[in-house]
Amino acid sequence: MPATIQPKSSLVTFHLQSIGSGVSQTIQQEGSVHTIRVDAAPVFGGKDEYPSPIAYALSALISCSQVTAQLVAKDLGLKLNQFEFDIKATLDTAILVNGALEGNPNFQTIELNAIVDTDSTEAQFEQLRQETERRCPIYQLFLRSGVAITNHWSIRHSALV
Known about the structure:
Distance between the termini: 51 Å
CATH architecture of the largest domain: 2-Layer Sandwich
Shape: globular
Oligomer: single chain
CATH superfamily of the largest domain: K homology (KH) domain
């Protein structure tokens, strides 16, 4: 069986640095002008001034799915227009909040629903969805960590002009 070779030129390094106090942080990605501000809800000791790490993690799944879908669509010759995502996740906070010694601090389930405006066929769209799952690093991060993910995508056909 031949070995799979990963060319070094395909590796990208991301470098982020943060400063913060309490549960609030300001994060900067090297080479970017954007700042990420993070806080937590009062129940977790925060002031709820910025999105929580949980909201950012789930937002990353949504946005990475959309970016990956556009890359896949380009490879498949498909045109994707507007996306709508709805995501729900369950998280047992017994370890995080109460310090329980048993359990799993990871998400238990994630339900991701997407509606995509496209003129692709059902077969092309299913190929797009499957390939997006396979190629999306954030989707794979959750999946490989053991989260039970339900990923349902549906088509909203573009109006004919």
